[in-house]
Design brief:
Blueprint (H helix, E strand, L loop, with lengths): L5 E5 L3 H11 L4 E10 L2 E9 L4 E5 L19 E4 L3 H10 L6 E2 L6 E7 L5 E7 L4 H4 L4
């Protein structure tokens, strides 16, 4: 069965996103990092995650982040399932991050959205059921 292994992000500065991800997932670690030229531009990279999944951050991007309220192409957000939304919100609040907005009411899940200091949006969802038909109910 296929599974998502990693997400690769190109950012102007990786520290704001790394700080946010460290607060969200304190058990994750920097798995590896280095530098290399990318299309003739210097670039630092790092992999932040666990043994099975990670987020790649690459710095030295040029340009502005996509307007999250606009209709331009690009990344809208990255979604993570978490075991406890309340604990995640408390951890992020303690680290100085506040939710951008809550998701819509749903009988089988609760979700929240954050925008990090680099302008990237992350969604976190907690499911209250293991039944696929309930988890994937579109109301």
């Amino acid at each position: 069965m296929p599974k998502l292994e990693h997400v690769n992000l190109v950012v102007t500065n990786m520290q704001p996103t790394l700080d946010f991800l460290k607060a969200a997932f304190p058990a994750w670690r920097v798995r590896g990092q280095g530098a290399r030229p990318w299309h003739r531009h210097p670039q630092n990279w790092l992999h932040f995650g666990d043994d099975d999944f990670y987020v790649t951050l690459n710095d030295n991007a040029v340009g502005e982040q996509r307007d999250l309220k606009g209709h331009t192409p690009g990344l809208a957000h990255i979604g993570f399932e978490v075991p406890s939304l309340a604990r995640l919100i408390a951890r992020l609040s303690k680290a100085g991050f506040e939710p951008d907005h809550m998701g819509e009411e749903h009988p089988h899940r609760r979700n929240v959205y954050y925008v990090d200091k680099a302008g990237l949006e992350f969604e976190f969802v907690e499911y209250f059921t293991d039944i696929p038909a309930e988890k994937n109910l579109y109301v």
